[in-house]
Amino acid sequence: MRFVKGHGTGNDFVIVPDPDGDLDLTPELVRALCDRRTGVGADGVLRMVLAAAEPRAAEPLARPGAARWFMDYRNADGSLAEMCGNGLRVFGRYLVDAGYERPGLIPVLTRAGVRGADVPAEGEVTVEMGPPSVGSPDAVAVTVAGRAFRATQVSMGNPHAVCFADGLSPADLAALDLTRPPDVPSDVFPDGVNVEIVIGAPDAVAMRVYERGVGETLSCGTGACAVAVASATRAGRGPGVAVPVAVPGGLLTVLWDDDQVRLRGPAVLVSDGLLRPDWLAAARRGSEPALAAGSF
Ligand SMILES: N[C@@H](CCC[C@H](N)C(=O)O)C(=O)O
Fold first, then answer.
1. Where does the record place a coiled coil (predicted)?
2. Is position 84 annotated as part of the catalytic site?
3. Is residue 158 in contact with ligand 1, taking CB distance under 6 Å?
């Protein structure tokens, strides 16, 4: 089984080309692939499959026929997510660099609907992230690293809680301990949520993120879009803004237009590899990582 490793501002992925949809990508296999000690290591998996080979993914979505490819995104814990902004840039870069598509605007089916990836022959990739849905500013109580914040609820196809940490310096933001999951109200976020902590606004922001199904990551594309939109809304601005968003892994640009949000940033392919059959068989059985409790 072939794989490619890639990243977008340090949010890293194992890309699994599976055009005909032959692969049974179980949660156990996803967890084994993403394991940073006993697998390839990543924040998530991007399975690349022809949309026609995956009719069930398209069922609830409008215009599935518009997209040739389905981006089957999985979080490192094996869970499904509706969308992944950094992943879509990397997915688009792979489609072009591997010769599946020509440079240009490529429609891709995701669980949030069809999204476009504008991939030049080289350089940064811009993805169409769809329209945002923003709740009332600062309406939700959230606790992160033992500190109480007010969060704005934003959907970019997947759920976000954006916390403006007005009193925090850049050093304070960097020092927050994000090793434990934030405490969020489960009635507001029944399916879990990605939590962003933000300083600086509304023209330029810096953020850290604790991702649902992963933990802290160096970047989150849907999160950067949620932050830019929440930040503009909080400042009484509407669409028509361009916001640079600094994440621990680099810099993203979010453009909020009348119809939708666009996300621009790097998309880097790092390596190609082959999974060994014996490792794959063990991963499928769920017996990776090899150092399971009680084995020594
Ligand atoms: N890192 C991603 C978001 C991945 C999905 C997220 N963890 C979720 O469960 O919603 C991005 O770049 O958008």
1. none
2. yes
3. yes
